[in-house]
Specification:
- This protein has five helices and four strands, in the order E-H-H-H-H-H-E-E-E.
- It has one domain: Orthogonal Bundle (434 Repressor (Amino-terminal Domain)), CATH 1.10.260.40.
- It is globular and about 35 Å long.
- The protein has a two-stranded antiparallel ribbon. It has a two-stranded antiparallel ribbon with strand order 3-4.
- It has 90 residues and is of the alpha+beta class.
Length: 90
């Protein structure tokens, strides 16, 4: 089976719009800790209520927030939600 990855794009959306964590908390009602984790792509799951609040508050769709990527090569190791690609040096 191929490696699969679903990635949260909240951090990118925030950066593109010039939004801080506090701005997103105020717009969505989602807790600051949750926003911080999602923005850093450091979480393994998201509740439907949270996803709905983000979509409503930021005027986006779930597809704007979550990205599905299908890799045909090994991903390498994962550290705190970030991919560290395999390299010839190790």
């Amino acid at each position: 089976m191929e490696d699969l990855l679903i990635r949260c794009r909240l951090g990118e959306i925030m950066k593109d719009r010039g939004l801080t964590n506090k701005d997103v908390v105020d717009l969505t009602g989602v807790s600051r800790n949750t926003i911080t984790s999602l923005a850093a792509n450091a979480t393994k799951r998201i509740d439907y209520d949270t996803l709905g609040a983000l979509c409503y508050g930021l005027n986006v769709t779930p597809g704007d927030i979550l990205e599905y990527t299908n890799f045909t090569q090994p991903l390498g190791r994962v550290s705190r939600g970030n991919i560290i690609k395999n390299s010839p040096t190790g």
